[in-house]
Amino acid sequence: AGNQCSLNGWKLELFVFDIFEYATKLEAYECIRSEDFSPLKNSISLPNDNPLTCRTHLSNLHKKWVKEAGGIIVNDDPNELFEISPLLSFAGEGLEPHVKGKEFKLPYYLH
């Protein structure tokens, strides 16, 4: 029925629906998935939901914030990263004085 292999780890996973039966009060909100959610549950040996895809999603969000605040990314290559320190801006707020009218060459770390 298959080849025997040795187990090198356990993947523990729960879903939000698993707690519904225990909740006395439940609230939900709608969000833009690409801005608020990037699952990390696989190793880089799998193509999705791995550390590299999470890093790319965060970089894309930070690029979006910079552009919305008036910054210019001169080499907007999807493989090059842009990171904003959470000490500078947690959710894209307050970036305009730091980026408006300025050009950024990727990769770039704004802090």
Can I get a quick summary?
By secondary structure, this protein is α/β, with parallel strands linked by helices.
Strand proportion, as a percent range, falls in: 5-15%
Helix-residue proportion = 10-25%
How confident is the prediction overall: mean pLDDT? 91
Evaluate the radius of gyration. 19 Å
Largest sheet: 2 strands, parallel
The separation of the N and C termini measures 55 Å
Q: Which strand order does the major sheet show?
A: 1-3
- The low-confidence parts are none
Order of helices and strands: HHEEHEE
Net shape: flat
What's the count of strands?
A: 4
Structural class: alpha/beta
What does this structure look like?
- It is a single chain.
- With 111 residues, this protein is of the alpha/beta class.
- Helix content is 23%, strand content 9%.
- It is built from three helices and four strands.
- The chain has helices spanning 33-36, 51-68, 96-99, and strands spanning 72-73, 82-84, 103-104, 108-110.
- The strands form two sheets. It has a two-stranded parallel ribbon with strand order 1-3.
- The longest helix is centred in the middle third of the chain and has 18 residues, at 51-68.
- The protein starts with 32 loop residues before the first helix and ends with a strand.
